Amino acid sequence: MMLDATKQDIQRQLLEKELESVGIRLNKQKPNIYFKVKKGGGLSFNSTCNLTKIDEKLVQLILHEYKIFNAEVLFREDCTADELIDVICANRVYLPCLYVYNKIDQISIEEVDRIARQPHSVVVSCNMKLNLDYLLETLWEYLALIRVYTKKPGQPPDFNDGLILRRGASVEHVCHVIHRNLAEAFKYALVWGTSTKYSPQRVGISHIMQDEDVIQVVKK
């Protein structure tokens, strides 16, 4: 989320409120509540921890508002009424968000320091090209991206044109990125890098790649 550092915190608060109203939750985990509608038997309520923000009576009132009279509810953490409603609605989206504050060249160094210390926040100046390298590095981390380089038989790896993949991608993902039919013709792959015990290592299609690995795919 790109923000203007000169507008203090009000811009961020308004945008967060707007996103909250349409069911988007930023930098939050899905509430650890088990919820299941039943055909009969009334409300089955239980918890595995001490609840300080909600009780069985309030849970029942919330369920009745949604015309749910038979359900099983199990709290595995100390959640709020709003978090229970999120679970009942089952249409909330939980997304990581990086707040990028631009125009830091127009505010005091004390204010820059305050903003930079906030969670999930990066300060930059596009005009003066300040802190852009750190922004790129942080984005890479938040998006959980890795670079994988390809190698043709008898040739050095192509370090100028790496494949950008999500962390946890397998050799099969690499094959699909290179060519949609490559996985069908796959025999094995040779991999150099931190994902292997030795280099090169012969691996199968389910092998998990790591950042800056080099791969050579051998077809049938």
TrEMBL record:
OBG-type G domain: residues covered: 1-144
Domain of life: Eukaryota
Keyword Endoplasmic reticulum: no
Coiled coil location: none
UniProt key word Nucleotide-binding: yes
Residue ranges of every copy of the TGS domain listed in the record: 144-219
UniProt-listed Pfam families: MMR_HSR1_Xtn, TGS
Key words, A-Z: GTP-binding, Nucleotide-binding
InterPro entries given in the database record: Beta-grasp_dom_sf (IPR012675), DRG (IPR045001), G_OBG (IPR031167), GTP-binding_2 (IPR031662), P-loop_NTPase (IPR027417), TGS (IPR004095)
One GO molecular-function entry: GTPase activity
PANTHER family in the record: DEVELOPMENTALLY-REGULATED GTP-BINDING PROTEIN 2
Name of the featured protein: Uncharacterized protein
